[in-house]
Amino acid sequence: MQKLRKVQNCADLLKSFLPQSFAPKIGFVLGTGLGNFAARLEDCRTLPYTLLPDMPASTAPSHQGSFAAGMLCGVPVLMQQGRCHLYEGRTPGEVCTGVRVMAALGVKALVITNAAGAINPLFKAGSLMAITDHINMTGKSPLTGPNEAAWGPRFPDMSRPYDPVFLEISAKHALAQGMSLEKGVYVCVPGPQLETRAETRAYRLLGGDAVGMSTALEVIAARHMGLRVLGISCLTNTNLPDCMAETAIEEIIAAAEKLGASLEKLLIAAVPDIAGAC
Ligand code: HPA
Questions:
Q1: Which residues contact 91 (CB under 8 A, 6 or more apart)?
Q2: Cis peptide before 48 (omega within 30 of 0)
Q3: Is 116 a pocket residue for ligand 1 (Cβ < 6 Å)?
Q4: pTM value?
Q5: Are strands 26-30 and 75-81 parallel, antiparallel or unpaired?
Q6: What CATH topology corresponds to 4-277?
Q7: Which of 120, 131, 194, 214 gets mutated to test ligand 1 (max ligand atoms within 8 A of its CB)?
Q8: pLDDT tens-digit map of 30-41
Q9: For residue 80, what are the β-bridge partners?
Q10: Where along the chain do its domains lie?
């Protein structure tokens, strides 16, 4: 009940900062590299998380920590500029507050982005990957505890967490733009340490194509509430157990920011189709 009230408090406050007729259709979670995407919004309003007492702050480098609302290609959207993570000491419920707030404000689709390391040896650092499925290695779920029936069922289906129609839309626009878009399975780890060689080998054996520290819990919360999801990873580095290079967070952030421009272009092209499909 407390979770429900906190989300409703955030949603009510955020709504009070928006034009009365504003009815957002798509919610975005902007991960590393996409922090400036909100600059593309028309009639943009931003609200720092610090003004929402029940919204957890984001302390990760390059995560701004504010909601943005506005029109993208004629579609009303909400954006979460930055998120919080389990490795910041946050609970699964806190990690998912932003997604639940956007759902409470009426979005029907979630576009969620992140930075990830490629563990498929055929994937190159500097590419984008549309997420076809995930493996949640955190051992946590935002649905632990009493079920909030107002949000969704006790045992939500997870057979297709990433919407097949949205995957087709993203593939179509990537092709039209001559952009390579890999497709693959995202392995979500708690972090903050990067993976050992043995862990990387194990995640690859499990069927993973990329590994990162976010997204899966938010997607579980989104599917619980019936949102349709598109997930895109910026593959910032390669994690190959037999020729493992050292990876520094500064390099990951720089690589994600470089990829941000392509991802923005792809999402701007896809938004009208995503809105049309909802
Ligand atoms: N591992 C985990 N998270 C990441 C990585 C990685 O290699 N790259 C970007 N985020």
A1: none
A2: no
A3: yes
A4: 0.95
A5: parallel
A6: Rossmann fold (3.40.50)
A7: 194
A8: 988 787 899 999
A9: 29, 67
A10: 4-277
